[in-house]
Amino acid sequence: MLLNALSRSVQVLFLGGKGGVGKTSTASAVALHRARAGGRVLLVSTDPAHNIGHLWEREIGDDVVTLFRDADGDGASAGRLDAVEVDPRRTVRAHVREVGQTLRSMMPEHLHRQVDEHLRMAEDSPGTHESALLERIAELVEQSLDDYDLIVFDTAPSGHTARLMALPETMTVWTEGLLARRDRAERFGAAVRALDRDDDPATQRDRRIRAVLTRRRTRFEQLRDVLRDERRCAFVVVLTPERLPVLESAELVTDLQGSGVRVGGLVVNRLSPDDAGEYLARRREQELRHVESLRELLPEMEVQTVPLLPGDVVGADAVGRLADLYA
Ligand SMILES: Nc1ncnc2c1ncn2[C@@H]1O[C@H](COP(=O)(O)OP(=O)(O)OP(=O)(O)O)[C@@H](O)[C@H]1O
Ligand SMILES: [Mg+2]
Question: Is the dihedral of CA 24, 26, 27, 32 positive or negative?
Answer without folding.
Answer: positive
